[in-house]
Specification:
about 675 residues, mainly alpha, about 0% strand
Length: about 675
């Protein structure tokens, strides 16, 4: 079929485009060489050649697509773009069971782990009993929801059976099959051997299922090394055993290529055998082989572990980079990120060398990831320089503004935590807003990490807001991130109470108390007593006092909760009893306030001086001399030093019977207690 000829009015522009690229390609390369000609490891010339080939291909072939190809999720993405997130709603992962909505940070973590554990349990049952799940009612067919084949189907001795065990990640079964093939004299292809070595080195000669439960010897080794087990992840780190199957199979190979060395070296670095990794790398060079970029990335990350002094660590990194240049190995993003991560252990010289490393990345046209900037911030904001390099974060945020990122490095999820921590240390709220804007831009929130990282990030951000912002701004963010993004801990709620106190908005305390109850912190003594102290400290309008009294009764209910509930029960203190009593008196809830005096006696607590004075003022306003006398007698029971003053005031302000005057005169003349 003959294509129609290009019209004359379109041929000229196409010809001009090709002439433009041919005329300016040399000029572009010259400018690039002049701009980044400083301090390279020899990769710039290779990049120039690649750019010239790209320009040549562009001038020769121009492909114009006939139609736009849409992804299968395009309609769903378009619909999702029409709605916004509800800040008052719980996260979508909890919508399956509203009864189990988490209210606190520990409950959030427990729910998340339980849900993930349930998925693994269901997957294990489905995959181990596929005969019960043969019917597929889904339309269209969804392969990921169907049982996976986790048991080998091929039992005969063959390379196909070995490939199947490697694919199923059956490490020990794959090694046994490989040994049987060698004993039977059946050759194994190089590609299959590579896959087997990759599997063994990644899991350190153990099946993946064994990594979930630490071995007894690992527990004992951890106790001898550290005295106690600090993290669960410490137990999941499998050591590189002596003469394991990876090294044994590697030594049995008649010919060892770069990929075999790459699998072995990366496995040694991953599992802590750093010295042996460098020894294996020396063996690779002695065999006149060329290492790949993955080998150098692993060795650079292991360099700080095999040297003690800072300059020795950096010298080893530079030597590895020079060897990359000699072997014409092109670095990638992970190479430079490994250099920056290693520089974090190189002391003061890291600041200067990190700048050169970043310039080298840009000279090679490698775009930094969030992990790159995370390492830069870690280098400049450590030790005594934490408060000095304030402009570094500003420069980083200016460069990253309105940029959407995708995960390119496992360490990408550490950037936002470090940036907000620096903002909190510097008390820089404007910079914190820039970090938050970057997090909300595009889908950068996906690089936050797990739920624990999210809780830590918003905890620091909310703490900074409480320190630096006005109450209206704090309340705006309070409603936006709680509880959809952040479950505040005890300190976060106390910070909120302090903001209300500083800005004179104590009238909002009852509504905050409802949130405290909903978040499960109504059993925390420091939060409850702080709330009561703020409400009872000053006198407010009758409406506010009425709301405070209702809140005080709810607080009293938290103290009186049934002990059968599996939660810590609050214990009355003299301060909490006094504050609740004062709040009830100020709202004219006298009868309930008298009931609180009985709690003082039952709890063996001494009321504060202001409590009895408030009671006496109420008795005066109500004209209740008998209650006033009982109040003075109660003060004498507690041996309070204010008893004579209360007795004198009662004698002066009430019309009393002779019997009542005799009792009060005796209490008035009694010696003051030393208490």
């Amino acid at each position: 079929m003959q294509l129609p000829s290009v019209p004359n009015n379109m041929a000229a522009p196409c010809r001009h485009v090709g002439q433009y690229f041919q005329r300016n390609s040399r000029l572009l390369l010259n400018n690039f060489e002049q701009s980044w000609g400083h301090r390279t490891f020899g990769w710039t010339s290779a990049l120039q050649q690649q750019a010239a080939e790209t320009v040549k291909e562009t001038t020769e072939t121009i492909v114009i697509p006939k139609k736009k190809t849409w992804s299968k999720e395009a309609v769903l993405e378009a619909l999702a773009a029409t709605v916004s997130k509800d800040p008052t709603a719980y996260d979508y992962q909890f919508h399956d069971d509203p009864y189990l909505y988490p209210r606190t940070s520990p409950e959030f973590r427990l729910f998340s782990l339980s849900q993930e554990s349930g998925r693994f349990a269901a997957k294990y049952f489905v995959n181990n009993n596929p005969k019960f799940f043969m019917n597929d009612f889904a339309e269209p067919h969804i392969p990921c929801l169907m049982p996976e084949s986790i048991s080998p189907l091929l039992e005969e001795l063959s390379e196909e059976a070995l490939k199947e065990r490697v694919k199923l990640r059956k490490v020990k079964a794959a090694v046994d099959m490989y040994d049987q093939l060698l004993q039977a004299g059946t050759p194994v292809s190089v590609e299959t051997t590579h896959d087997l070595l990759d599997l063994i080195c990644f899991y350190s000669d153990r099946d993946p299922a064994e990594e979930v439960e630490p071995q007894v010897e690992d527990l004992e080794a951890a106790k001898k090394k550290k005295g106690r087990v600090r993290r669960a992840t410490d137990l999941l780190k499998t050591p590189w055993g002596e003469n394991n199957n990876a090294e044994r199979i590697f030594n049995l190979l008649p010919e060892r290529d770069t990929r075999c060395y790459s699998a072995l070296i990366r496995g040694m670095v991953k599992h802590g055998a750093h010295e042996r990794a460098f020894s294996t790398y020396t063996d690779l060079l002695n065999n006149r082989l060329t290492a790949d970029v993955h080998i150098y990335n692993a060795l650079i990350s292991a360099a700080p572990e095999v040297r003690e002094k800072h300059h020795e660590k950096w010298d080893l990194i530079v030597e590895l980079l020079k060897q990359m240049k000699e072997q014409k190995v092109q670095p990638n993003l992970l190479t430079f990120n490994s250099v920056l991560k290693a520089l974090r252990q190189c002391g003061a010289l890291a600041r200067n060398q990190s700048s050169h490393t970043l310039n080298e990345m840009r000279a090679l046209g490698i775009t930094p990831s969030l992990a790159t900037y995370d390492h830069i911030l870690a280098i400049f904001f450590q030790g005594a320089s934490r408060q000095v390099n304030t402009e570094i974060l500003q420069d980083v945020m200016s460069e990253l503004a309105e940029t959407s990122f995708t995960c390119q490095d496992p360490d990408d999820n550490g950037f936002f935590l470090r940036a907000i921590k620096i903002c909190l240390d510097l008390k820089d709220i404007e910079m914190a807003y820039q970090v938050q804007s970057l997090l909300e831009f595009g889908e950068n929130w996906r690089l936050m990490g797990d739920s624990f990282n999210q809780s830590v990030y918003y905890g620091r951000f909310f703490n900074l807001l409480c320190m630096m912002e006005h109450i209206d701004v704090v309340l705006k963010w309070y409603k936006k991130i709680i509880p959809s993004l952040y479950y505040p801990n005890t300190q976060g709620l106390r910070d909120m109470l302090q903001v209300l106190d500083t800005d004179g908005r104590l009238d909002l305390l009852p509504s905050i108390w409802k949130d405290i109850c909903s978040l499960g912190h109504d059993n925390k003594p420091d939060v409850v007593e702080e709330l009561l102290n703020l409400m009872a400290r000053d006198t407010h309008s009758p409406e506010v006092q009425e709301s405070f009294a209702e809140c005080a009764l709810e607080v009293k209910g938290s103290y009186d909760k049934d002990k059968d509930r599996k939660r810590s029960i609050l214990e009355w203190s003299a301060a909490s009893l006094s504050n609740v009593t004062i709040l009830l008196l100020r709202a004219n809830k006298t009868q309930q306030a008298w009931g609180m005096l009985q709690l003082f006696q039952s709890q063996n607590r001494v009321p504060a001086q202001g409590v009895l004075e408030e009671f006496l003022s109420v008795c005066v306003s109500e004209g209740s001399p008998q209650r006033a006398v009982e109040l003075v007698q109660l003060s004498a029971t507690f041996c309070l030093p204010t008893t004579p003053a209360l007795a004198k005031r009662t004698l002066d302000e009430f019309e009393l019977t002779e019997k009542q005057r005799a009792v009060l005169s005796e209490l008035e003349s009694a010696p003051e207690s030393s208490e």
